[in-house]
Amino acid sequence: MTPTDSFDTAVIGGGLMGCGTALRLARGGRRVVVLERRGLCMEASGVNAGSLSPMIKRAALMPYALRSYDMWQNTREWLGGDIEAHRKSGLILAFTEREAELLEKMMRERIEAGAPAEMIGGNRAKEIEPSLADGVILAAWSQMDGHGNSSRTGHVFHHAMTEAGVDIRQGTTVQGIAKTGAGFEIGTDKGDVRAETVVLAGGAWLGRMGQWLGVDLPIGCKVNQMSVTERMPRILSTVVNAQNGLLTMKQPPNGTVVIGGGWQARGDIDMDPGTREIIPGCLTGNVQVAVHAIPAMRQARLVRSWIGLEALTPDMLPLIGPLPGVDGAFVIGACRGGWEIGPCLGEILGDHMLGREPALPLFDPGRPQPQARWAA
Amino acid sequence: MSRVEMRVEGGVIRPDPVDIEVDGATVTAVEGEMLAAALLAAGVLHLRDSPRAGTPRGAFCFMGVCQECLVEADGRLVQSCLEPVRAGMHVTRYGRRP
Amino acid sequence: MSDIAELIVLGGGPAGMAAATAAADRGVDTVIIDENAAPGGQVYRSMPASFRIADREALGPDHAIGDRLRSALESSGARTAFGHRVWSAAHTEGGFRMEAVWSGGRAEWNAGRLVAAPGTTERLLPFPGWTTPGVIGLAGATILLKAQRMLPGKAVVVAGAGPLVMAVAASINKGGGKVAAVADLASPGEWLAAMPRMTGRADLLVRGLGWMRAIRAAGVPVLFRHAVRAAEGAGALEAVTLGPVDREGHPKEGQLRRFGCDALAIGYGLVPSTEVSRLMGAEHRFDALRGGWAPVRDVEGATSVPGFHVAGDAGGIGGAAVAEVAGRLAGLAVARDLGRIDAAGHQQEAGPLRAALAKADRFGATMARMMRPRPGLLDICTPDTVVCRCEDVTRAEVEQVIAAGALEFNQLKQWSRCGMGPCQGRMCGEATAMLIAKHVGGREKAGLNRARVPIRPVPLDQLAGTFAYDDSFWESDAAKLSLNVLPDENQVSR
Fold first, then answer.
1. What is the pLDDT of residue C158?
2. Chain A touching partners, 3 or more CB pairs below 8 A
């Protein structure tokens, strides 16, 4: 092993969480390597629908979402690159009495937690978004909403980390980790790497990574479908969401409309990304909700649907902090809405590892968890 | 603007010409003919402008792949290479910049 | 509409028609699907139903072959779904499911076997001005000439590689049009050297020589070892500049010749259409001499995915004659696998077909070799030339993201938007992959553009159809599957 393969910290997983942590550590003076088996941010970090919608986040995550919202708006300052973030107003729509009831309850909790939103009626919602269908009973409205272009994530972080001196090793597959006295030896298909500390940042693959060090991490996986239309004349001025979460829709400046909402597809962490499959009923379901909310979307043509794997935990909150029982190992990930909330999460773990007081509390990876929904 | 001479004579007998409307102008075409071909014969090559640079574009592949020949026909977006001509159809080059 | 069949054949060209006919003739419940209004594919594309045929001779041999294949299909009893755009091809527990949209709404088919015969797309390598209206594909020109009986322009430059160059030029000439010039990437020597391997299909060889003679006789300038350097025109094509190249397509010093024209038909060969075989997860291999990436298959077209065959050019370029025989072999294999024909009966029919395939394939392979990728042609693409037509991404922008650290096609796509527009990389895919290959050292390393649903753009209107929206909307299996992973506060129905 050469000295060039010896680091203060090895971050395993080059998604947003790993890149954010690596960047913070490198800027704090640490020698950092990022080991990524494919390219940076090619999975969930680079293929999510790009929502910047704090009000659709869980109450416990609200302070993190608000902090990261500002960070995404200022990427030129802290990343030196443009993520194409746009501030817009956003709507969460309820079309039935049942949906209205749930929306009311859900938003009361979130607004108490600081969500910058208010409840409005259908007529007001239609003034805000003239393309909206009739029949909205109740809506939540936030002027602190918007979207970014998640597919640029890898590009801008590659640039920022290069500037900060991070050793970026794309196309490098980690095969295992051994704890050696004060540090770790990490075996990869391109040779071994040594590091004092390791950060596991593997998203949906975190469970597998925990196994390398004999730790069971409670990680489940959502297989989310997203779609985009071809460019079309301006049809949406807001970000449009459905009460139950199964629709997010926005139109970036290029005129395409991105349709998400977490309809499920077929796939798992072992499948080659190219063989994950859209479930036709889920695609048509998603499209139906989209045209129900915005009838003019019927004119659009869908050009591409794709699939991202989203990690989740039984309590729907992230794992950020020391890996239980393994000194010097840390974990970060499994945050619902992780792309939107991610920027500040890398910072807080980085700060913790640098011995600084993080701006917001970590999420103890070893906390007790309820029974997982997906295991039921 | 008709360039009927682009239609090869012999071999086939075409039905009588019909009129279609392209952005308000009357164009002579043949019922059942591929709309993209009818537009080409009429000298209507510039079907849309590219989205970023705004450069002129016309039908390229004539087989449903390139998406360059997208027009609005009777209120629907269609690839004109997959759309047959119907008498009286209204065609709008919706992708052209003003 | 949901329908169950034993075999789905995707694609109504020679391979698809022959596969469906062979299977249906032996009692296999077969449905053949294609987005075109009638069977034929590209080479044997049928003419509009409104055209009355007056002189079959004048239409050339391909029309007769197409009619023969069409009438065999019709009498086979195969069910047909033309005018249906398949947007999803997926595995199911018991086999395969295709979803389509058509003028009547949505349609769905399920079957235990699938033969995909989606054919090819053209290899297009950008040059300055290639986005000018009037610049069209060689295959597109063929379709105009054969199926529409229409000239591509009043004065046409025809350029590129392979037999289509001379075929299109001769066809324009025969149709009374003016060919301004012909540029062929190959040298006369290259054609001569190929001829011994073409004698197995003397009919096709004679036809090709006939094209050449006719063009010469018409006094058309024919420039061998030449490529298009630039096209120009404001709003529509006005002129094309041709220049000499070497064997691999690199532009060479020499006389540039400019020809006034209102159409340029250009194509640098054919590339297998592999969206469906990639979606199915079949194993693929890169073979430059067969057009590039193609599914690995046996002689019956069977891929690495059980029950899934690929026939025709989509499995590697071989041409229409090969496609027909390969389709028949695939259809027979399905009939045998379903027990509609016993091993002996199968052997009796398939044996001669295999011999015919080998013979036709020698010719096809020779043509495919003439149309192989010639990376030197990339040197004609200047930094500010658009590579991705849909998104207006230039060569310089593509190379910037390669320099910035993008490793392969899918990452480059994310970083540059190259290949992200409505054609989904079908126009720029080859050029982009060749550019990446140049920097990373080989097409295998450059990666394969991931296939995505929808296979072709689909109007949301057709996907959504009519439906009622109320709380019961969320009771569908798809909705329940998607809601089940969400926290309780989101749940509409329980």
1. 98
2. B, C
How many percent of chain C have pLDDT more than 70?
98
Instruction: Say what the pTM is.
Output: 0.95
Six token digits for residue C312: 């025709």
Among A223, A225, A286, A288, the strongest candidate for a mutation testing the C interface, having the largest count of C CBs within 10 A, is: A288
pLDDT at residue A166 in the model: 98
Residue A241 token pair: 């969401």
Query: Residue B3: pLDDT above 70?
Result: no
Count residue pairs from A and B with Cβ separation < 8 A: 7
Q: Report how far apart, in Å, the C-alpha atoms of C425 and of each of C268, C329, C393, C471 are.
A: 17, 31, 12, 40
Instruction: Give the C-alpha separation, A151 to A162, whole Å.
Output: 18
Residues of B in contact with C144 (CB under 8 A): 37, 40, 62
> Cα–Cα distances in Å, from B73 out to B33, B51, B83, C343, C462?
14, 20, 9, 53, 16
**Residue C494: per-residue pLDDT:** 41
Q: pLDDT tens for residues A181-215?
A: 889 999 999 999 999 999 999 999 999 999 999 99
Quote ipTM for the complex.
0.96
Scanning C374-393 for CB atoms below 8 A from B yields: 386, 389-392
A119: helix, strand or coil: strand
What's residue A1's pLDDT? 54
- pLDDT for res A217: 96
Nearest partner of A253 among A240, A236, A275, judged by Cα: A236
Is pLDDT at B4 greater than 60 in this prediction? no
Provide the 8-state DSSP code for A117: -
Question: How many residues make up chain C in this entry?
Answer: 494
The helix (run of H) or strand (run of E) holding residue A306 is strand A301-312
Nearest C-alpha in C relative to B17: C50
pLDDT at C488: 64
Q: How many CA atoms lie within 13 A of C317 on its CB side?
A: 27
Per-residue pLDDT, C94: 85
pLDDT tens column, A121-171: 999 999 999 999 999 999 999 999 999 999 999 999 999 999 999 999 999
Element (H, E) at A350: helix A338-353
DSSP state of A245: S
Q: Per residue in C84-116, is it b (16+ CB within 10 Å) or e — as a string?
A: bbbbbbbbeeebbbbbbbbeeebbebbbbbbbb
Q: Which residues of chain B does C423 touch, with a Cβ-Cβ cutoff of 8 Å?
A: 65-67
Chain B positions touching A298 (Cβ under 8 A) are none
- Give the integer Cα–Cα distance in Å for C155 and C260: 8
Residues of C in contact with A42 (CB under 8 A): 410-411, 414
d(CA C395, CA C404): 14
**C-beta of residue C155 within 8 angstroms of C-beta of residue C182:** no
